[in-house]
User: What shape does this take?
Amino acid sequence: MKEQSLRRGAVIAFVTAAALGLVSGGVSSAEPGAHAAKRRSLHLTDTAYLHLTKKSGNVLYERGTATGTLPGTVSARFVTGVTKVTGTVTFHPYSGGSITMTALGYPQSAGTVVKFNGSIAVRKGTGRYRRVLGSGTFSGTANRRTWAVTVHASASLTY
Assistant: This one.
């Protein structure tokens, strides 16, 4: 049941992101593996510190900074619920380009400072990351009074 819920949530997050124009895709006429030699691998381990910029009902807009493998700025849009949170997060590394991911998370506590964890899917990027693909996990805390969020993310990417 939980696996079905995870899949349903991931589909909802993807459809929402696609409808907002946040996920782009294309069809390549190149043979499989034609670009394989040019692709690079990266294990991303970053911590993001976010603060609330706008709240509209159960939708939160956050901005902040990231430290770790790709230090830079971060912007995010989260749809919060009692049992899950979905969202789109974009990293803008100081070195250039951007990486956009969809997130599906679950609160682990119900206090003022809530712990959460979940999974991320990476399907869009710009600049050097324009062909980025990957997946990973995250965990963190959110203050439900100020909506300050700290997130620790780990993902394996190819680009």
Notes: The chain has one domain: 2-22+38-158. Residues 2-32 have pLDDT under 50 and may be disordered. Residues 35 and 159 are 10 Å apart (CA to CA). Residues 2-19 form the longest helix (18 residues).
